[in-house]
Amino acid sequence: MRAYLDGHSPFETKYGVKGAEFDNVLVVIGRGWNQYNFGDMLGFAAGQAIPAVREEFFERNRNLFYVACSRPKRRLALLFTQFLSPVAMGTLEQWFSPESVHAIML
Questions:
Q1: Whole-angstrom Cα distance, residue 103 to residue 32?
Q2: What is the DSSP annotation of 32-50?
Q3: Domain spans of the chain?
Q4: Distance from C-alpha of 51 to C-alpha of 22, rounded to nearest angstrom
Q5: Dist CA 20 CA 39 (whole Å)
Q6: Running DSSP on this structure, what letter comes out for residue 16?
Q7: What is the pTM of this model?
Q8: Which is the most buried residue in 31, 44, 59, 103, by most CB within 10 A?
């Protein structure tokens, strides 16, 4: 715990890395946080009309997703622990190339 608090840990929160860079980054994304749902955000990013009451949600999710994905200097891996709709998967394939996106069903 002390190593983490002193900044000597390989783990960090999405908010904690703002402005930092790392050679390799693994972003773990799940549904444990009620303020964020990156699956829904990816669906809206595909061109779905964003309801006015969801615009702030979309922007908050998009901004944090950008922070998390823009930290690596060399390699980025995203691990979604939640189900993603075909539309959300399509957005990931568009942003990161179809060859880079792999669905693993357990």
A1: 20
A2: --TT--HHHHHHHHTTPPP
A3: 2-100
A4: 36
A5: 25
A6: G
A7: 0.80
A8: 44
